[in-house]
Write a structure and sequence with these properties.
globular; 17 strands
């Protein structure tokens, strides 16, 4: 993209941020009635429980119409098509390229923890065995994003990251591995509000999108139930290792958080007012190497690492969905993260364990037929 295009898009970002700050974060929202734990458990027990649909060879138009605009999660099985990262990225690769760097780890709630040598950290988690979903450990924190300064972050966001001098692992990696990945083939080329791309096409490997990060996590690591900070769409690009977890419809936001934390949170507004208009629904996902999952805007989700994992993620909102996104965000406010994982809640364990048994029985019946 040209220098003029970068400047225009940067100005668009500034205008949008200013507008949202004035229109949303400083406006008082109506108080919603609280939902009790027993009612929350009943809501989740009665929810429609299904697996995230898996597709491949999907066009941008179909992806947008069937999933993005309906706020429906989906896994694109060939999502990393033509990404050299599939062949190049490994724990050894990052040890050789960046191993001497000092990095700051984060816990399951995104809070900064100790600084460690990257090489030592990667070798430690790469040696650990695979675990089953629900086997959680707090022994190892994960590496998601290493910060430098707010000004440098803005330069990366606006497409001027190649001019920045930094010792931040995230920023250095973004500069050096640009040729290893790019915009997934099924995402729209242009027409984005977040990040602002009304001129030219989105090149997420050259312009750092919101919440961009490389994730390195150990088996047993859990990113607790949460809604992303700006309630934007997220793409979780799985390069090495396996992940699994759950996504909840926005109508279950209060119930899921109540059950995870063991204290009352607000009722969610009616499903008709939510993006996609979904009734109570829980999606289970299993993410394999080479796949990309869309986590739609505003949906609570919890992610578990099953084997030593390297993934890449970033967030966005397209122009056609912006009005619904803005109204929903105005009603709900910013994102949040639960103080405890929902996988540890006994009432929720009974939900997914029961569904797992019924699902296996159904598969057995199909095979007998």
């Amino acid at each position: 993209m040209s220098f003029i295009g970068d400047v225009c898009n940067a100005l668009g970002d500034v205008a949008l941020w200013t507008y949202e700050e004035a229109s949303i974060y400083r406006r008082k929202r109506e108080t919603q009635p609280l939902i009790e734990e027993s009612e929350a458990a009943s809501r989740l027990q009665g929810a429609d429980y299904r697996h995230v649909e898996r597709v491949s060879d999907i066009t941008s138009a179909t992806f947008s119409e069937r999933y993005l605009m309906r706020n429906e999660p989906v896994i694109v099985a060939d999502g990393l098509l033509d990404w050299p990262a599939q062949q190049l990225w490994s724990f050894n690769y990052f040890c050789e390229e960046f191993g001497d760097l000092s990095v700051r780890l984060q816990d399951a709630g995104f809070k900064p923890k100790d600084s460690v040598e990257l090489r030592a950290y990667l070798k430690q988690i790469a040696s650990l065995p695979e675990v089953e979903l629900g086997c959680m450990s707090n022994e190892l924190d994960y590496l998601r994003y290493t910060y430098d300064s707010f000004f440098k972050h803005l330069l990366f966001t606006w497409g001027f990251g190649h001019r920045v001098k930094t010792q931040s692992f995230s920023f250095l990696a973004f500069q050096r591995i640009q040729r290893h990945w790019g915009r997934p083939y099924f995402l729209p080329r242009s027409g984005y509000r977040i990040p602002w791309v009304q001129m030219g096409s989105l090149e997420p490997n050259k312009r750092m999108c919101q919440d961009w990060g490389l994730y390195f996590s150990a088996p047993g690591a859990c990113t607790r139930l949460h809604v992303d900070g700006m309630r934007t769409n997220a793409v979780l690009c799985q390069v090495v290792g396996k992940k699994a977890g759950w996504i909840f419809s926005s109508s279950l936001e209060g119930a899921a958080r109540t059950l995870a934390e063991g204290r009352s949170f607000a009722h969610s507004p009616a499903a008709a007012n939510d993006p996609g208009g979904q009734a109570d629904r829980i999606w289970r996902f299993d993410l394999e190497p080479g796949e990309i999952m869309l986590i739609p805007k505003g949906l609570p989700h919890e992610v578990h690492t099953l084997s030593p994992s390297i993934s890449l993620t970033y967030n966005f909102v397209t122009s056609p969905e912006y009005d619904d996104y803005f109204k929903f965000k105005s009603a709900r406010g910013p994102g949040w993260i639960a103080s405890a994982p929902i996988a540890a809640a006994l009432a929720f364990k009974s939900v997914y364990q029961k569904r797992a048994v019924s699902g296996s029985e159904a598969r057995e019946e199909v095979s007998l037929v």
